[in-house]
Amino acid sequence: MKTLLDRERAVAALGELYESFGYTRFRISKFEEYDLYVRNKDFLVSDSVITFTDTDGRLLALKPDVTLSIIKNTPSDGVHKLFYNENVYRVTKSTRSFGEIAQTGLECIGEVDGYCLYEVLLLACRSLKKIAPAFVLDVAHLGIVSDVLDSLGASAPLREKLTKCLGGKNAHEIVTLCRENGIKEEKADLLRRLCGCPQTPYEALKELASFPEGSFDRAHLEVLKTLCGALKKSGFEKNVHIDFSVINDMNYYNGIVFKGFVENIPAGILSGGQYDKLVKRMGKNASAVGFAVYLDMLENRAEESGYDAVLIYKNSDDPGLVSAKADELRKQKKRVLVSKSAPEGEKCAETVTLDAGKED
């Protein structure tokens, strides 16, 4: 029985995956100058930051984010592929109070090309697969969204409202807002069609190709087409969806954005995209793409998932044989408890004895 990984095993599995692709572990102090977060507070998941004054008078913060630190400390030349296993300090979704959150992710910064973009999406898929066998990666292109919004000629406040409607898949409100603000029906229909775009890549790309010329830059569509085709060849055709409700802050992000979901967790556990605008805002002449895996969502998975197998032994059993049987089960990627009896209150997919083999 395959279950979600618990947090500790996820950290190890993802780190091994990223290293196998040539990504280098990024390590940094727990502290950063508070000014870094003040200048980029809109980029943060939460604008609440724990601060303190250093001995030299500088105002420091326990870092609530890793990406900003990576950009700050990474050169713009060449391509720099980095991953991190770090703790960040911010208000957690579960408790609504400050907590220490384990976060894993990767960043590709510098002269990012089409292959780099595909590789990051591939690693996003493989990361989700490491965590759980059933997963979905929702992908969108902010260039298409931005171009369609530009074609409406909407004011900044209206544009913000329409963007929120798209993020909430509220096609009815999109039509209503456009009508109330004098936007022609055929123009409003473009945004409504994005809202209801089919999820399967083949149908979605077909629908986008049918948009009138000038609706958006066709180069954006080619990027989506190329990436979906490459991910299909990598075996992830059924796991990738096109979904234009995936909208990150367009003041920072551009191009491809994505969000990942796994079974048994109701919210997105992985989020990422291209953030060239953020890099340039921080004074770097470079491009960037990356994602974070929110491991705090796996905080209690070890307790919830129980054991994959319990190996039952007797006092008369040879310890060496018991150990060998346990190792045999672990080679099957199973979480094994060796015990004289099955523990009460724990979920277990199977019990195993040396004599009888597998039993229900």
Please provide a brief summary of the model:
With 360 residues, the chain is of the alpha/beta class. It is built from 13 helices and 15 strands. Residues 300-305 and 356-360 have low confidence and may be disordered.
Which labels suit this protein?
13 helices, 8-stranded mixed beta sheet, alpha/beta, disordered C terminus, 4-stranded mixed beta sheet, 3 domains, 360 residues, BirA Bifunctional Protein, domain 2, globular, 25% strand
Topology:
Blueprint (H helix, E strand, L loop, with lengths): L6 H14 L3 E2 L5 E3 H6 L11 E3 L5 E4 L4 H7 L5 E13 L6 E13 L3 H18 L3 E7 H11 L3 H12 L3 H10 L4 H11 L5 H9 L8 H16 L6 E3 L11 E9 L7 E5 L1 H6 L5 E8 L6 H5 L1 E6 L6 H12 L5 E4 L8 E6 L3 E3 L1
Parallel strand pairs: 1-5, 7-8, 12-13, 12-14
Antiparallel strand pairs: 2-4, 3-4, 5-6, 6-11, 7-9, 9-10, 10-11, 14-15
Helix pairs in contact: 1-4, 4-10, 5-8, 6-7, 7-8, 9-10
Helicity range: 25-40%
Using only CA atoms, what is the Rg?
A: 24 Å
**Integer count of domains:** 3
So what's the overall shape? Answer: globular
Overall mean pLDDT score?
Answer: 87
Largest β-sheet summary: 8 strands, mixed
**The CATH homology group name of the largest domain:** Bira Bifunctional Protein, Domain 2
The CATH first-level class of the largest domain comes to: Alpha Beta
Structural class determined from secondary elements: alpha/beta
Task: Quickly give the CATH architecture of the largest domain.
Answer: 2-Layer Sandwich
Please name the CATH topology of the largest domain.
BirA Bifunctional Protein, domain 2
Strand order of the largest sheet: 1-5-6-11-10-9-7-8
Number of strands: 15
The oligomeric status of these chains comes to: single chain
